[in-house]
Amino acid sequence: MLSNDWENFAARMAEVRDLGNAVALLSWDQETHMPKKGMTARAEQLATLQGLHHERIVDTAVGDLIAKLESNGSLSELQSCALREFKFDRDRATKVPVDLVKEIARVQASALSAWGEARKVRDFRLFAPELTRLLELRRAMADAYGAPPGGERYDALLEGHEKGMRVARLVPLFESLCDWLVPAIQKISAAPTPRSDFLEGQFDADRQWQFTLELLEAMGFDMQAGRQDRSVHPFTTSFDPEDVRITTRIFDNLPLSSVFSSIHEAGHALYEQGLPAEHRRSVLCSATSMGLHESQSRLWENLVGRSQQFWTAFLPRYRQLFPERLGDVSPDAFVAAVNRVEQSPIRVEADEVTYNLHIFIRFELELQLLRGELQVSDLAAAWNERYRRLLGIHVSDDTQGVLQDIHWAWGEFGYFPTYTIGNLYSASLFEAALRSIPDLMSFIEQGRLLPLRDWLKTHVHRFGRIYEAEQIVQKATGIGLNAADFIAYLTRKYQALYAIRF
What we know:
The chain has 502 residues and is mainly alpha-helical. The protein contains 22 helices and three strands. The model has no long low-confidence stretch (mean pLDDT 95).
């Protein structure tokens, strides 16, 4: 009977989700509170749990249940969606040997440690052996998945973050965006540079932390269903819509780092808190793609957090916390500094004009790594050459260069393109929100951010994995993935800020 089969399937799906959340909790702790000497034990714990998670998904009994339910014509629409998405995950998992899953978990733990040590001494060579091993394992995983229709090895990993996306689609899209960005950046660089000296010097870490908490509250992040901590690399982890953890990072001499790290991660967290809790132990209560996830963080960070209206609302409080640095700074001067375009070597500190060149460099390099066209031993030099050519930057050391991101220490190849996909989606979604809420910018100017959060929950968050990312965006905006809305947004904003024409 359908009821018994579905109940058995739902129980299996819930068990898989619980194990995945346990893995996520151990990983969160590893990055936030775990003592340094706990790394060896944590590697084994993660390997065991990830192995169990994998075994539960690939269990033949689960496959039999899926086959029975697929042949049953009385599934509801939501049941069919859950079955489809779980089957997608299972079909991928069944192609990967459990020993490979466990080995990746072990190497991830040691690679994270090696990455941290290499960053301290600014020497990529200390991390290179671990990265070489991770690359070998991820190639093996990609080959086990097999290239999806119309794709290549890289697409097999990309598919895990952005279902249905292909290198063949991304390359021309990214190249067209770069073709616009490079001359635009050159024109901006030739214009007078806004002053930002008031953002130099020391900014008390405790007061920075306080300001980030106030921003989270204004954005509608539910602190009873989440928390903020500190980590080397800001990230968001969610175990349930009512347990969402974010981290930020605070530097005494880089005050905007904490501000925009917290806004960015809160954008991710609002998505997680807005997922359909009625499906909390189902695959449907999860994000449909990392590109859509990034659209939420980048929308809040850039289209809201770097706007004139946002700082009209929040600069008075920021001045109050740092009167010695910001007491006489005008809103116009502050907004110009917040949106200052610079050829910086650091992705997470990059402005929204240069940011996507950082992503294109990483995408191009990891594509070459997966194809076997680039060796890990040559990665740092290749990185530095591209930064010189595309951004005109001399990378001073490996921590400022190839070691800056945590993603490769996780072996997360295929993830970086989702940042640019997210940027493109963010512009289209914000334009749709403006059409739907004519007074939106006035609300933001008053510090009223909840109308935007609620619009995003209605048009994006609540769908979880019921629809694919581009379907959700199309429903909300009337258009799919494109660069035109993003380019139009940058054109309007930066022509006005820099008094130039592109």
